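Exercise 7.
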Amino acid sequence: MSVERLKGLIVFSILIGAAGLFLVFNSVNLGTLLAENWLSGQVDGVDTYLYGVRMGGSINNFLAVGSILFSVGLVSTILLYYKLLRAKE
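Solution. The predicted structure, written as tokens, is:
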């Protein structure tokens, strides 16, 4: 694999990791926003417990996806950087 291609893959994996960190740190805001959008679309009254469950589920989804993206980005960055160092030898 060429050095330029490895550098491009490293940049891509860094972007994936950054997107994962963004989702992890903003999971509460994004989960609350999704739950509020769902609540505003309901015609009948909704129980507050159901709103809380919906909000908690959305927050957990963003945390899970963000953690996975960050982990994949971090591991691939480390492995690709190691491969880049080996390719320059």
